[in-house]
Amino acid sequence: MKSMENDYKVIEDLSMIPYNYSFEQALRNNDIIFDQLRSYNVKRLHEFIKNIEHGISDNVRIAKFVYDGKATIAYLHFNGENILYTIDISRFNSDLKFITYSGSKLFSHTEYNKKKEYEVYYLITNTHEVVEVFIDA
């Protein structure tokens, strides 16, 4: 479910991240990172998924960096019942600043591209959409 409405503190937290948030800052902050070539701190995403499986509340921040250096920052939040995935798209000249998806399950799928294998993580939303969350390259 796409929504700008949000009942958790993530919008405030995302709003505090600097516009020029850098790869180095994300690494220091232990974010789960994808920079078009590699991924970092993916073990933390695996811990988050295990916590979901055990019904333990948790949240993680994901930073995706594109070639021009701009970051797309997102939070995954599990409150013990539901997964909320909020993406900050304010750095990309959009009328929307945040998009939130609400779902019940995260899963991964192995994909292949140019003889390279990588894992893609998806959220199944409450409206049965499948939303890409992270690529482990």
Describe the overall structure.
- Helices cover 18% and strands 44% of the residues.
- By secondary structure, the protein is an alpha+beta fold.
- β4 (71-78) and β5 (83-88) form a beta hairpin.
- The protein starts with 9 loop residues before the first helix and ends with a strand.
- The model is unreliable at 1-7 (pLDDT under 50).
Number of helices: 3
Largest sheet: 8 strands, mixed
- The rounded Rg comes to 14 Å
Element order: H for helix, E for strand: HHEEHEEEEEE
Provide mean pLDDT, rounded. 88
Helix content: 10-25%
Estimate the strand proportion: 35-45%
Arrangement of strands in the largest sheet: 2-1-3-4-5-6-7-8
| Gross geometry | globular
Q: Look at the helices and sheets and give the structural class.
A: alpha+beta
Low-confidence stretches: 1-7
The total count of strands amounts to 8
Give the termini distance in whole angstroms. 27 Å
Gist of the model:
The chain is of the alpha+beta class and 137 residues long. The chain has 3 helices and 8 strands; from the N terminus they run H-H-E-E-H-E-E-E-E-E-E.
Topology:
Blueprint (H helix, E strand, L loop, with lengths): L9 H6 L7 H6 L3 E3 L4 E2 L1 H12 L4 E8 L5 E8 L4 E6 L9 E16 L2 E10 L4 E7 L1
Parallel strand pairs: 1-3
Antiparallel strand pairs: 1-2, 3-4, 4-5, 5-6, 6-7, 7-8
Which terms summarize this structure?
137 residues, alpha+beta, 8-stranded mixed β-sheet, 3 helices, disordered N terminus
